[in-house]
Amino acid sequence: MAKTQLNAQVPQELAAExxxxxxxxxxxxxxxITEVLAADLAAASGSRELREARARMHAVAAYRRxxxxxxxxxxxxxxxxxxxE
Length: 85
Prior knowledge:
By secondary structure, this protein is an all-alpha fold.
């Protein structure tokens, strides 16, 4: 399979976490990132259950970023409201 290079700027904390996760998995950084992206894309086009799990994962990550930035939750939707539960 032909390969190409992608460049992205990410927060230092995220980069450190990704490097650590790759090391725990016994993988090089490039292979780890490739696997994570491939899994996300597979979930995006997978079954309804996979798409919902992917949406929840992305929602939780966004929620954590929101809280880490010190933003207020006043008036925000709950996860149950977002997912119609």
